[in-house]
Amino acid sequence: MTILKKIQNLLHWEPTPSPEVSLSDELYIQLKPFQLPLILLVMTMFIGTIGYIIIDDFSLMDAIFQTGITFTTVGFGEIAPISNAGRMFTITLIIMGFAVFSMAVGILVSQVNSGELTRLIKERRMLYQIARLKNHYVICYHNEYTIEVGKSLREHHIPFVVIDPSTDIDVIAKEQKYPYFIQGEPHTELSMLKAHLSSAKGVITLSNSIADNIAMIASIRLFQKEHFVPRDYFLISNAENKSDEEKLLKLGADSIVTPAKLTAERVTAMAARPDLENFMEEFLLNIDNPIRMEEVFVPKYSWLVLKKLKETHLREMANVSIIGVRNKVGNFTPMPKGDMLITSDSKLLLVGTNAGVSYTKKLIEKREKPEELRFA
Fold first, then answer.
1. Could you give the count of Cα atoms lying within 13 Å of 49 in the half-sphere of its Cβ?
2. What is the pLDDT of residue 193?
């Protein structure tokens, strides 16, 4: 292992992630028309340099410099006396330079006016930003549901990428403040790769068409198999009726939102227990609430791994309570006892203050035992 690699491991440096789709081929096609002017430029510089060396016995550097100022028509004049043959050669170089320059400007204007090159550059920049995301959500199709979901996710600082086939998705994204977006059909493999689905936590497909939702869920499950994604995506969708809900669940959706059913349950809960309903809404949805409940992942390298809950002393250090533990296969244990072991890749359901939960997340990320517990 090299010294640089050891330093990177010590400081936990990670290389800048690259998108799975770089658009290099598309950019090459757009830049290909500039090949001819570039070749002509190199040929003109080469011919001019050789010409001045042969005709007027210039040194190599003087010949390169004289060719450059002549070719670009900057008007610096002659750096040394030039013969009549050399002046005729200079005029030829000036004409060639003007022709090459005019051709390059024409190609540049044509490419810029088409808008394709600019679009590709912006999309490439967006893909590199998306490649840095981890545990984000991919939201398929822009509509009234997506707008509200996007607002809520932004308030809770949950990253997400919106995929929609609309050609003006960039304008929509700016209006609705979508931080990341992809223009394309969501169910295609290309769109999934662009959205960095391999690192996503889940997918939300809220199309008004049940056919779109069915195609999306089937495509996600197929993508998971073909790309050997080690974990299951959490898939959320919507359906208009019970029949559509059953179809989506059979295909592999984890949670289905049915507007009629959701409205009925909410109204019933408010009618039966209005005080409790208001409390739960305040507790779970209001980001300004001092009490916070969150599920926190325990990585393999965490100092908590194979420790008993009572040995963590999280309540004393961060004023939080562990009210549930979910192991890596998905089994959930509510109100665990203090003798329960914490395993790697498990999730702890925490309840505490905002500051306490945030501090606990930092403690769980540590590799070494915190200083406060060194002598505990």
1. 13
2. 93
Spatial CA neighbour of 201 closest among 136, 127, 279: 136
pLDDT digits (tens, 9 = 90+) for 331-362: 889 888 888 999 988 999 988 888 888 888 88
| pTM exceeds 0.70, yes or no | no
Token pair, residue 175, equals 């209006």
Report how far residue 89's alpha carbon sits from residue 86's, in angstroms, rounded to the nearest whole number.
Answer: 5
3-state SS, residue 139: strand
The domain 290-373: what is its CATH number? 3.30.70.1450
Domain 25-116 matching CATH 3.40.50.720: the answer reads no
What's the CATH fold of domain 133-257? Rossmann fold (3.40.50)
Distance CA 35, CA 120 (A): 19
Residue for token pair 């290099």: 24
Alpha helix (H) residue ranges in the chain: 3-11, 24-31, 35-56, 60-71, 84-114, 116-130, 144-155, 169-176, 189-194, 210-226, 242-251, 259-272, 274-285, 309-312, 314-318, 354-365
